[in-house]
Amino acid sequence: MTAPDPDGLLAEQLLRLTRRVHRIQKRHLERRELGITPAQSRLLRTLAHYGSPPRMADLAERLEVVPRAVTTLVDGLEAHGKVRRVPDPANRRVIRIELTDEGRATLRELRAARRAAASEILAPLGEREREQLGELLNTLVDGPPGPPCEEGAARRPGDGGS
Amino acid sequence: MTAPDPDGLLAEQLLRLTRRVHRIQKRHLERRELGITPAQSRLLRTLAHYGSPPRMADLAERLEVVPRAVTTLVDGLEAHGKVRRVPDPANRRVIRIELTDEGRATLRELRAARRAAASEILAPLGEREREQLGELLNTLVDGPPGPPCEEGAARRPGDGGS
DNA sequence: TATTGTTATACTCTATAACTATA
DNA sequence: TATAGTTATAGAGTATAACAATA
Question: Which residue ranges does the record annotate as region Disordered (chains A, B) (predicted)?
Answer without folding.
Answer: 138-162
